[in-house]
From TrEMBL:
Keywords: Plant defense. It comes from the Eukaryota. The keyword RNA-binding does not apply. This is Disease resistance protein-like. The lineage of its organism: Eukaryota, Viridiplantae, Streptophyta, Embryophyta, Tracheophyta. InterPro entries: At4g27190-like_LRR, LRR_dom_sf, Plant_NBS-LRR. It comes from Forsythia ovata. Residues 106-214 form the Disease resistance protein At4g27190-like leucine-rich repeats domain. Pfam families: LRR_RPS2 (PF23247).
């Protein structure tokens, strides 16, 4: 379903499975503009293109208020965000929401997340949101000029301040693609267990010093097939820092220089 907002709020069919927004006038939170979005429980795919005013997908309020509206995106499997100049994150905390836990069910079925050309966002996944993404299989982030972290602590979205140094697990992540992120400094600052990872693509991310899904373990992840690196960035790859002294040796067979 393609949509153009116009004036007023739009009611969506409850059984709709796919949404596509392109220059439709979205602003603030995407969910705010659609009265029935929280009840559209069967949406599986959502694409958002060139929406100049959108800041987030969901604006979280208190748990009681959120429960009264229902759990949004409980069936969402694919989310693609393209060229959103004011987008700062998947969600924003509102009022006292930061002291309440996230509602179970938000994004729990998400398998594929793409964020391209969003030049205001600095962090993709706040630490507090990670627990709601157990099924994430593919994460692609490209051409985002201000990205500093993939998984990190709170910044200006009002989310809780939680230290991102604990060990985390992403049990189903298979593909991680990071392209042209000039300010990216960290994928994750702590230990990241990702035994399902198959392909990692890192191109033009030369401020990155460590590759968290590959670091800190005595051997390569069991499912790993390829590590793609730009041929012109061989020196960057060889300068990466590793916790395990033999990491560069056991990872080298998987590296493919493009």
């Amino acid at each position: 379903m393609d949509s153009s907002l116009g004036e007023g709020k739009i009611l969506l069919p409850r059984d709709i499975e796919e949404l596509r927004f392109s220059r439709s006038g979205l602003s603030g939170s995407m969910a705010d503009g659609f009265q029935m979005l929280n009840n559209a429980r069967y949406v599986k795919k959502c694409n958002v293109y060139q929406e100049d005013e959108i800041e987030c997908i969901i604006r979280l309020s208190s748990t009681e208020e959120q429960q009264s509206r229902g759990v949004p995106f409980e069936s969402l499997e694919e989310l693609s965000l393209y060229e959103l100049p004011n987008f700062i994150g998947l969600y924003m905390w509102e009022g006292k929401a930061a002291v309440a836990p996230l509602l179970p069910g938000i994004f729990t079925q998400l398998t594929d997340l793409k964020i391209f050309g969003c030049n205001k966002i600095k962090k993709i996944i706040p630490w507090s949101l990670l627990q709601t993404l157990p099924n994430l299989q593919k994460l692609e982030v490209k051409y985002c000029k201000e990205i500093e972290e993939i998984i990190g602590d709170e910044d200006n979205d009002g989310s809780p301040v939680i230290s991102s140094s604990a060990e985390i697990t992403m049990p189903r992540l298979k593909i991680l693609s990071l392209v042209n992120l000039p300010k990216l400094k960290s994928i994750y600052n702590g230990m990241m267990i990702c035994d399902s990872i198959e392909n990692i693509i890192i191109i033009f991310c030369t401020n990155l010093k460590k590759v968290a899904p590959l670091d800190g373990q005595p051997s390569s992840p069991p499912s790993l097939k390829n590590i793609h690196v730009c041929a012109r960035e061989r020196e960057w790859w060889e300068s990466l820092e590793w916790e395990h002294p033999n990491a560069n040796n056991f990872l080298q067979p998987f590296v493919k220089f493009w």
